[in-house]
Amino acid sequence: MGNCLDSSAKVDTAQSSFGTLGSGVSKISSKTSPSSAPSRLTIPSSSERSNGSSLPTPRTEGEILSSPNLKAFSFNELKNATRNFRPDSLLGEGGFGYVFKGWINEHTLTAAKPGSGMVVAVKKLKPEGFQGHKEWLTEVNYLGQLYHPNLVKLIGYCLEGENRLLVYEFMPKGSLENHLFRRGPQPLSWATRMKVAIGAARGLSFLHEAESQVIYRDFKASNILLDSEFNAKLSDFGLAKAGPTGDRTHVSTQVMGTQGYAAPEYVATGRLTAKSDVYSFGVVLLELLSGRRAVDKTKVGLEQNLVDWTKPYLGDRRKLFRIMDTKLEGQYPQKAAFTAATLASQCLCAESKLRPTMSVVLATLEQLEAPKTAARNSQSEQQTLSVPHRRSPMRQHHSPLNITPSASPLLSHRQSPRVR
Ligand SMILES: Nc1ncnc2c1ncn2[C@@H]1O[C@H](COP(=O)(O)OP(=O)(O)O)[C@@H](O)[C@H]1O
Ligand SMILES: [Mg+2]
């Protein structure tokens, strides 16, 4: 790990600031995404080396769209479900589309009166030409086949003329980005931050461990959605890509992703591996710890780039507090915060091979949660006098320090992944 920190320090100086990529980088979402949000980026197709054969099970558009798990909606149905895409039901805006709240009948899946039936989120792609259609189809392809509690559920789609829409389960708490960086909502407690990190790690780990590996390629706070209990689900599969197969170590492809989150070696070479997602996970973990954006143009110099700014503090137990989110008001267990910071710096290792896999990341985060479960168990043991004294299997862990009293209990909701 020491090596990792040393080498990442060298490479990050040269590569982690995307501004240094110069004119080769174009911000394809700059015309559509909110100005405060990080820009998606792409390197023009001169670097495109994909032969298109990387998908283990290439499917035709017809096959993708005839998925039995998905409903094909008419444009009119979705117009009615969203009250004609009323601006006041806008849930969010990403690089490729506007997302509206809508209502459908949960049995027939036809448009329902606002306030009745099932709430859905309807993403309407801005007409962007071929790239927009390609990403839309990629999302239908993956989310139509993959099912996991930490991936957002796709209910259906609409393809009619120029219109491209997607219908998802509604995620009441919106995106992680809204909670971490926007003024207004109650700041997230330490326990909730860890719960979100664990949920997102489960989602990524499921994709990486799947029989046909999937690389997510756009892991960032705005693509992590939250249900009413802050369970995290990955959304926005427009850039997902099949992982390398056979003896191949990587997939060579056009560089796509988001400034500040994409792994430096991927940006430099176009070589994509699951470890590129691990790097992005490290960036989001830093955002959870610090409450700061991956790239923040309102800051000066080094502080604009979260990875560069936090690096000197991550490995120093006594200095770590300097980068911790002040909105936590010191209410976090110091030991767990240090472990999470160490994990983040491992994920950000310049040498991609030295980064941990997502299953190791997940196991490490689950360990951080374990002492809390132990503390809860021992508390309920004390309250239940009639129960004979039992040793909790978690007893060997120390209780966390400074846990916020208002922190919600963390439920373990691990479920075995399945492909539908
Ligand atoms: N299912 C959903 N429930 C609630 N809000 C959503 C949902 N899907 C997306 N959003 C909101 O819309 C934003 C953009 O969605 P996203 O799928 O990332 O679009 P894009 O592909 O344009 O980036 C998200 O950051 C989130 O705030
Ligand atoms: Mg998005």
From TrEMBL:
Chief place where the protein resides: membrane
Record SUPFAM superfamilies: Protein kinase-like (PK-like)
Compositionally biased spans, kind Low complexity: 23-39
EC number(s) stated in the UniProt entry for this protein: 2.7.11.1
GO molecular function: ATP binding; protein serine/threonine kinase activity
Gene Ontology terms describing biological process: defense response
Basic residues bias spans: 388-398
GO CC term (a single one): plasma membrane
Top-tier EC class: transferase
Compartments it resides in: Cell membrane
Renumbered residue ranges of the record's region Disordered: 1-64, 372-420
Keyword Zinc-finger in record: no
Annotated Polar residues bias: 42-57, 375-386, 399-409
Coiled coil ranges: none
CDD domains, alphabetized: STKc_IRAK
Alphabetical list of InterPro entries matching this protein: Kinase-like_dom_sf, Plant_Ser_Thr_Prot_Kinase, Prot_kinase_dom, Protein_kinase_ATP_BS, Ser-Thr/Tyr_kinase_cat_dom, Ser/Thr_kinase_AS
KW Transmembrane helix (keyword) present: no
Residue intervals of the Protein kinase domain: 85-368
The entry's keywords: ATP-binding, Cell membrane, Kinase, Membrane, Nucleotide-binding, Plant defense, Serine/threonine-protein kinase, Transferase
Binding sites annotated in the UniProt record for ATP: 124
PANTHER family with a match to the protein in the record: OS01G0588500 PROTEIN-RELATED
Family indicated by similarity: Belongs to the protein kinase superfamily.
Name this polypeptide is given: non-specific serine/threonine protein kinase
Species annotation: Prunus avium
Gene (UniProt): LOC110751312
